[in-house]
Amino acid sequence: DTEVTQTPKHLVMGMTNKKSLKCEQHMGHRAMYWYKQKAKKPPELMFVYSYEKLSINESVPSRFSPECPNSSLLNLHLHALQPEDSALYLCASSPYWDRGFRAGELFFGEGSRLTVL
Amino acid sequence: QKEVEQNSGPLSVPEGAIASLNCTYSDRGSQSFFWYRQYSGKSPELIMFIYSNGDKEDGRFTAQLNKASQYVSLLIRDSQPSDSATYLCAVNYGGSQGNLIFGKGTKLSVKP
Hints:
Chain A is mainly beta. Chain A has no helices and eleven strands. Chain A is 0% helix and 55% strand. In chain A, a hairpin with a 2-residue loop joins strand 5 (44-50) and strand 6. Chain B is mostly beta strands. Chain B has no helices and eleven strands. The chains are: A mainly beta, B mainly beta. Chain A binds chain B through residues 2, 31, 33, 41-45, 48, 50, 55-56, 90, 94, 96-111, and chain B through 31-32, 34, 42-46, 49, 51, 88, 90-92, 94-105.
């Protein structure tokens, strides 16, 4: 069982809605990630928080707004999304941030499958 | 542009055979490499990582790295039907920041 918990597992929203995805981990990992994965495509990095600060933003549109309230929790706020934003949103964490070669060892949650109508 | 290339497959092998999955990458400065397994409808899980030239073995899995050729591979010995999944090669371009670029994945099917 994954120790990275994502809610909700499924979300359907209209283009004018505001919703949020939530991710929690209690492993003491200091880096948390949001990835987007479309069907039959690889995961694409969106954001990275390290020590609760935004470290990487991969030029993601402003309709996606990340938030890291504390070291265990990561949110992704969604507003005015487009149908092409429909995808699996994966949260991951890592204890190896800033620790050399193992920095890419990520622990993924089960994902939140988003459908934008 | 940094790229990670994999043969998308599907790669079909009989049960008990060796499955060989290959990956090439574009940035010669990359230092660490990861293989993730992703079952259909599930999230990726780490199988192995490697950062030194040569082979690294873990149970039925062997990762191979050749930095001169910019080539990474994963061998699965005694393949089982439960190994049927998509295997994602990932390259860490972010140094200590864990900024992974994933390949498109190779779909492996192990036939009983």
